[in-house]
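Supplementary Data S3. Sequence and structure tokens for construct A.
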Amino acid sequence: MTRWQTRRSWPVVSAAFLTLLFIAVPAVAQAPSQGMDIRTGIVLDTYRFGDEEATGIRSLSLLTLPISGAVALGQRGTLQISGAFARGSLEASNGESVEVSGLTDTEVRFGVRMVRDVVFQVQGVAVLPTGHSTQTPEEAVVAGALAADLLPFRISNWGSGGGAGIHTSAARSFGDTGFGVSASYMVGREFEPVEAEPFAYRPGNQLRLRGAMDHNVGPGSKVSLTVTLERYSDDALDGANLFRSGNRVQVVSSYGFAPSSRTSALVYGGVFHRSQGTALLEVAPDVPSQQLLLAGGGMRLPMEWGVVVPSLDTRVFRSDDGVGQGWITGLGVSAEVPAAGQMLVPSVRARFGNVLVREGSDSSITGLEISLTARF
């Protein structure tokens, strides 16, 4: 498995929906103002392909056990830690099964936040190499399939050798309008991605710039717009420049409103464009430019025992060479249930779509996502 195959910048639709639904001040990371916040859970994603002979895959699944924690350090400091255990499995059309499992890399963030007229935050970021970054060729096949841009799996790789960086953000409101900007720079470490091929690979450093704006357009209504630019330095293989990733541009807009005094709703849409990636050595292929279109929405319906959140999302993936492009739609519902001092969030989502394997050959896709999250 190569890094340019798994460096996926497309966001998961459910994560994007929750981020947009609960955003208060753009571009500023949310952290507890006091005390500690711990979240854990279990997520199962599984997909089946209608034409397994065309895809070579009968089914693909991912079980994820994420855990994250945040603690306030005094009035201004925050410490955040997140990681996961994941197990991915692929059943081929001939009935053979292959699996990859293990910890993912662990991310640690230490930040200082200052709130005056401008909310300003600086974070130091360390990615600890706890993940299963060196894989057998069989495991690499599974990991590469799970990194497909069309399918919204929760993770796209188990490990990338670790790294470090810095993240800064600032936000300010002017009446009914809020503005935010953020910038981050991450430096990756060298690692060996394939067990049977002892070569050293180092991913290119990442620069991410983001600007966001939201505006109150009426009682209980708000529009928001977020624009993100990502640039990477060249990937390296045994010290030689290997691959030059194309720039990423992401634009997401949303409209939140209150259909009634007790309910809230949100609709969103976005486009994510990745420019062509260029191979600098013959061992690496060029990667065509790609686009991902997102659209969807949902509602929050308060009940006596908690909140019900039905939602609908659609993603359309396009590639200049046509390989792997297609569409997928999800319809699901989640609930927020307070219980014994914690918040339980069960969720279920059904998915269906279609993927173009190669010219003149496509396959239907059906999927199911089941999760349970607990927040302490």
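Construct B, processed identically:
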Amino acid sequence: MHDDKNMFKKILDYLYYQYELLAQLIPLFAKIYIKIHRPSVIKEIDMCDISASDRIIQVGCGAIPYSLITIYKKLKIPLVGIDIKEKAVKKAKYYLKKFDLLEKIKVVKGDGTKFDFTNYDFILISYGAKNTDKVLKNVLSNSEKDAKILLRKTTFGKTDNIESILDKYITKRKKMLLTQESIFINKKLKK
């Protein structure tokens, strides 16, 4: 059963990635994609009490960095996104450049399992990020002691590794889209 859930997540990740690549070619698809996800991102901003003074990074920003775009439009602050896929990084830069956002939202190739997060106050770990449990462990060990973390994960089934990590912290959870929940972790609030 656990393998079925992993396979389902892999299929969803693949479909999201392919849709983002298609949305690069058809601007209407990108607008729809951003419009569908915008309300969830706004709820996350409020849930996590993100402010204009926070230094923000997203792990797994994808080819259409809708979260970063939404956060930028709300807070008007510079943001950073990383993605492990070079193609996604190139596509995201191309997309941001078309809308004059490349100077405001920096996107670079990066592996969330090894990245140094010490310069960031708020770290968003995307639903589609690979090796989510390893990324979360790295974020917790390589970020400021009062960092705020938002983890997007599937609602179908619990991942024992992730749940054992989360059990150490006081969290807020909110179901967002059909298969996604957002989990806010304030690193300084340990159980």
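Residues 2-190 form a domain with the Rossmann fold fold (CATH 3.40.50.150). DSSP finds six helices and seven strands in the chain.
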